[in-house]
Amino acid sequence: MKLLVVEVAQIIPYTDSDSVLNSANSLNIPLTFFDLPWLVGHPFKQVFFYRLTESTREHFHSFILPKLKLSLSLVLRSYLPLCGCITWNPNELKPRIVVSENDAVLVTIAETDADFSHLSSYGQRLVSELHTLTPELPFSDDSASAFSLQITLFPKQGFSIGFAAHHGVLDGKTSSIFIKAWAHLCKQDMENRVVISLPASLTPSLDRSLVKDLTGLDEQMLEMVRSLKDDKTNMRSLSRNPIGEIGDDVVLATLVLSRDDVERLRERCMSQDDRRPLHLSTFVIAYAYAWTCLVKARGGDGERAVSFIFGGDFRERLDPPLPTTYFGNCLFTTGSYKQKAAEFAGENGLVTAVEILSDLVKGLSSPGIIETIAQGFAIVFDSIGESSQFGSVGMSNKFGLYESDFGWGRPVKVDFLSIRGDGISLAERREESGGVEIGMCMNKNELDLVFSCFNNGLQN
Ligand SMILES: CC(C)(COP(=O)(O)OP(=O)(O)OC[C@H]1O[C@@H](n2cnc3c(N)ncnc32)[C@H](O)[C@@H]1OP(=O)(O)O)[C@@H](O)C(=O)NCCC(=O)NCCSC(=O)CC(=O)O
Predict the structure, then answer these.
(1) Is 406 in the pocket of ligand 1 (CB under 6 A)?
(2) Is 361 touching ligand 1 by the criterion CB < 6 Å?
(3) Average pLDDT in the 43-47 region?
(4) Least CB-packed of 98, 235, 356, 397 within 10 Å?
(5) pLDDT, tens digit, for every residue of 284-300?
(6) Rounded Cα gap, residues 205 and 32, in angstroms
(7) DSSP letter at 63?
(8) Could you tell me if 129 and 56 lie in one domain?
(9) Do 162 and 258 lie in a common domain?
(10) How confident is the model at residue 273 (pLDDT cuts 50, 70, 90)?
(11) What residues act catalytically?
């Protein structure tokens, strides 16, 4: 596939007399203990595909692109941190996000000859090709960009919107609300209603004072970040640890559980014990099922240690809760560590995984659990090296990303690209409420095995 970069635009937030930024001030947002563990991680990337009936080059450049750029400028007015960079001054304990006047989001405009229908399908696609639809996110030792975008035209087929987001700046919930907010303003513009205000559900709260560190969690998280760095010579460096090359045989595909599939799996797990009701949510069922398929497909020694984790959104779990649109990270990572593979590969594997996940989700509501957030991360990083498989989940089946209609219809497909191996992604099913889309990315041969476990398991 060929990709031609047509332009690299810098989109600055729309300014008026109410604008927060001017030449005399900049916006400074300190990272919280929720943000710090993600400081040296790699950006997360997602791509949205939009099919168009009329998408000649001329129509795209004279009509679609200007609308996308104008609405982006308008929405950035509320999402200023996305225009900024993380910096870490020598005299400051923690890094911060700094946004100055005229700071912009870089938007790469590109064109490709690739087959839109193939790349936006549910089948196996080369992940290296999907990555070409997302931008790089610049960083150096001193500064790391928050967010960048790429809009790619597939002439006469459609276009894609891909982003790269610094996880130290925002989590999947915030990126999802941002995309929906941008789409909302673009759609209004399409209907010739120039509106620059967002509904409350899409308006971010930038108030970091709401996240209270009463027990030294900042310091604990900073200590953990230091321990994770490959380069111990410059602890304040914002450079990322190197990432491995993506091989030519690595594919990404989307497996689907219909609402009926979820219901049938749920029935298999119904507890016979009334004293111990299980949390049989769609998330628990889908993750447990995917996890057992991953373990079964790998095979091997049943005694080998396996672990799996997920992040719980703490906005509404804190006391007092944060606004649901709080901008940033608000994740608590929890998991099951170093269990025997045989426990998940056997006949009772699904029920075992469901019981564990049910307890973990319930455990997120335990009083005072937030004080253990740094120890939780330490266990995660210790267990990675000691587990033959390590499961994780990106995004959520509750983010509603298929609602992101910029005015040309809902996306035909949304793919989360920052998964590999036993890391999966979740999304709600495009075609039906209650169903789930599960993203997986690994070598083709391995994925074929997982597919057959997945499909066979649904026949039983
Ligand atoms: C911890 C969770 C994953 C658990 O999900 P759940 O769906 O199980 O939980 P929930 O609290 O939302 O509960 C809703 C579901 O539980 C059911 N439910 C509620 N009460 C129940 C009860 N007493 N018994 C049984 N079921 C019950 C509801 O019917 C509903 O089911 P039903 O669903 O069937 O209708 C979630 O609460 C959460 O925090 N999600 C956000 C995760 C997140 O932010 N991820 C982004 C990661 S960052 C990222 O993505 C970037 C990256 O990774 O790089």
Answers:
(1) no
(2) yes
(3) 98
(4) 235
(5) 999 999 999 999 999 99
(6) 14
(7) I
(8) yes
(9) no
(10) low
(11) 167, 405
Residues 403-430 have a mean pLDDT of 97
Domain assignment present for 238 = no
For residue 181 the two structure tokens come to 């907010």
Judgement on whether residues 264 and 124 belong to the same structural domain of the protein: no
Q: Rounded to the nearest 5 degrees, what angle is found at the Cα of 149, between the Cα atoms of 88 and 72?
A: 100
Q: Nearest 5 degrees, angle CA 389-CA 394-CA 395?
A: 155
Q: What pLDDT is stored for residue 274 in this prediction?
A: 67
**Is the domain of 76 the same as that of 127?**
yes
CA 45 vs. chain centroid, Å, equals 7
Mark 57-69 as b/e (b = at least 16 C-beta within 10 Å).
Answer: eeebeeebbebbb
Tell me the CA–centroid distance for residue 281 and ligand 1, in Å.
Answer: 7
Write the CATH number for 213: 3.30.559.10
Half-sphere exposure of 418 (CA within 13 A, CB side): 20
Atom from ligand 1 closest to the CA of residue 418: 54
pLDDT band at 243 (very low <50, low <70, confident <90, very high): confident
Q: Is the pTM of this model over 0.90?
A: yes
Q: Which atom of ligand 1 is nearest to the CA of 38?
A: 54
Q: Same structural domain for residues 308 and 430?
A: yes
Shared domain for 105 and 176, answered yes or no, is yes
Does the beta carbon of 173 sit less than 6 angstroms from any atom of ligand 1? yes
* 103 CB within 6 A, ligand 1: no
Structural domain includes residue 157: yes
- Distance in Å, CA 279 to ligand 1 centroid: 10
Q: Answer whether residue 358 shows pLDDT above 70.
A: yes
d(CA 117, CA 110): 18
User: Distance from the CA of 410 to the center of ligand 1, in angstroms?
Assistant: 24
| Residue 433 counted as domain residue | yes
Average pLDDT, the chain: 94
Tell me, using a 6 A CB cutoff, whether residue 314 lines ligand 1.
no
Residues 7 and 40 in one domain: yes
pLDDT band at 31 (very low <50, low <70, confident <90, very high): very high
Tell me which residue has tokens 């014990």. Answer: 273
Which atom belonging to ligand 1 lies closest to the Cα atom of 312?
Answer: 39
Residue pair 124/447 in contact by the 8 Å Cβ criterion: yes
Question: How far apart (Å, rounded) are the C-alpha atoms in residues 455 and 451?
Answer: 6
Residue 191, pLDDT > 70, answer no
Indicate the top mutation candidate among 263, 283, 429 to test ligand 1's pocket, ranked by most ligand atoms within 8 A of CB.
Answer: 283
How many other C-beta atoms can be found within 10 angstroms of the C-beta atom of residue 220?
19
